[in-house]
Specification:
Layout: E1 18-20, E2 29-31, H1 33-40, H2 47-55, H3 70-80, H4 83-88, H5 96-102, H6 105-115, E3 135-136, H7 137-146, H8 150-160, E4 174-175, H9 179-183, H10 193-196, H11 209-222, E5 224-230, E6 243-249, E7 252-257, H12 260-270, E8 276-279, H13 282-289, E9 297-298, E10 300-302, H14 303-310, H15 318-326, H16 333-337, H17 351-372, H18 376-379, E11 385-386
Parallel strand pairs: 5-8, 8-10
Antiparallel strand pairs: 1-2, 3-4, 5-6, 6-7, 9-11
């Protein structure tokens, strides 16, 4: 199984393993029975379900037992072995936790059911229907766009011999499957040639006045740049800025740790009406910058607003847009900061990681802008001002 979802650990056996893809912050892992038992601190794989049921998972809408977290769940499993055994011996639990668990027995049973992956779903397997046959390209495009299968769509088009494109032709195109096509296989885990190239994001701590002036001069000459301020929480407008990143060329970005000199540079760029400012959720960033006398800005392009106008019913997360439109997998914020009790704030990361994360965001925003500005519906879009 290729997944990073811990829930699937319950399916690991002697001949079933979990392949957990790595990223820039954590290595690729393969989980067998031994690894599952060590990770969850349990005695047998089937107890993964009891662990998940006791602890709960808000993402999967599993309520769990009130007052029971990771360590308590591990303690209960070590002592009782299962959810059922725990609920049958609640009289042994001490303190207020006993009252909480006893009052939620039905919730505990339900939580275990919700945490269980059903493996006996009847599936009608018809091999003939899996063969690539004659299909309507425009209908495939429409369906894949609705399902946000941007990357897979390009692979389908390449296998079918149709030229890749971001627009739908007015005329309907039907493809006949020949011998080469019918024998070709779509590899869901392959990567495009653009994905194979390691993405270069240049991030450097600029501090000397001459270098910041050099960056401003370059941005002014090009007339556009993307920018991203880095802080712990963009929704808290009183947040302290950690750093700022700019990008004015594909696969390149510069990152500056916070300083008065960098705020001056940021103000100079944002208030220059001849420079187009590109960003994601720019309004939230401007609200944070208000205390530095950076208020109304003009000549900007907001990626999140543009995508909302294009696809109002879809998600607008920057990592999803990067994968769908650029074929790039950006850093997962949960992998960078962690989750739950182990979650760190952005300010706790090393300067190198802060720089890399922020620089990648600005690079992606600039590349998305290059894609979006060529789309007919976006060409006439005008952002008046923001304050």
């Amino acid at each position: 199984m290729m997944t990073s979802d811990k829930d699937f650990a319950q399916l690991v056996s002697e001949n079933i393993f979990m392949y957990r893809p790595g990223n820039k912050w954590s290595p690729t892992e393969v989980w067998g029975i031994k690894e599952v038992l060590e990770k969850f601190k349990i005695q047998k794989v089937s107890q993964v379900i009891d662990f998940l049921g006791m602890m709960g998972d808000s993402v999967d809408n599993i309520p769990g037992l009130p007052g029971v977290g990771k360590k308590t769940a591990q303690k209960f499993i070590a002592q009782y072995g299962s959810m059922e055994a725990l609920l049958a011996n609640t009289h042994e639990i001490k303190g207020k936790l006993r009252e909480k668990v006893e009052g939620a027995k039905e919730l505990g049973v339900l939580s275990k059911q919700l945490a269980t992956i059903e493996t006996h779903v009847p599936i009608a397997f018809e091999e003939d229907k899996l063969k690539i046959k004659k299909f309507n390209i425009d209908e495939v495009r429409e369906l894949f766009d609705e399902l946000e299968f941007k990357t897979i769509l390009q692979r389908v088009l390449s296998v079918s011999g149709v030229e890749k494109t971001n627009t739908i032709n007015e005329e309907t195109t039907t493809v006949e499957a020949d011998e080469e096509l019918s024998s070709g296989q779509l590899d869901m885990f392959s990567v495009n040639s653009s994905e194979e190239k390691e993405k270069e994001v240049i991030s450097k701590d600029y501090s000397a006045g001459s270098e910041t002036e050099m960056i401003y001069s370059e941005i002014e000459k090009r007339g556009e740049c993307s920018l991203q301020i880095l802080c712990n929480n963009l929704s808290d407008f009183n947040q302290k800025i950690i750093g700022v990143s700019f990008s004015y060329e594909k696969n390149q970005a510069v990152y500056f740790p916070f300083s008065d000199k960098i705020i001056d540079l940021t103000r100079k760029i944002l208030l220059n009406q001849n420079i187009r400012k590109i960003g994601f959720d720019i309004k939230s960033q401007i609200k944070i910058l208000k205390k530095y006398n950076i208020t109304e800005i003009e000549n900007f392009f907001d990626i999140s607003i543009a995508h909302y106008l294009l696809q109002p019913d879809m998600r607008h997360d920057i990592d999803l847009l990067a994968e769908n439109y650029l074929g790039q997998r950006s850093m997962d914020i949960n992998s960078v900061l962690g989750k739950g009790k182990n979650k760190r704030s952005m300010s706790e990361l090393s300067k190198e990681k802060q720089s890399l994360f922020c620089s990648e965001l600005t690079d992606i925003q600039l590349q998305l802008y290059s894609v979006f500005r060529g789309i007919k519906e976006i060409k006439t879009l005008q952002f008046i001002s923001i304050n």
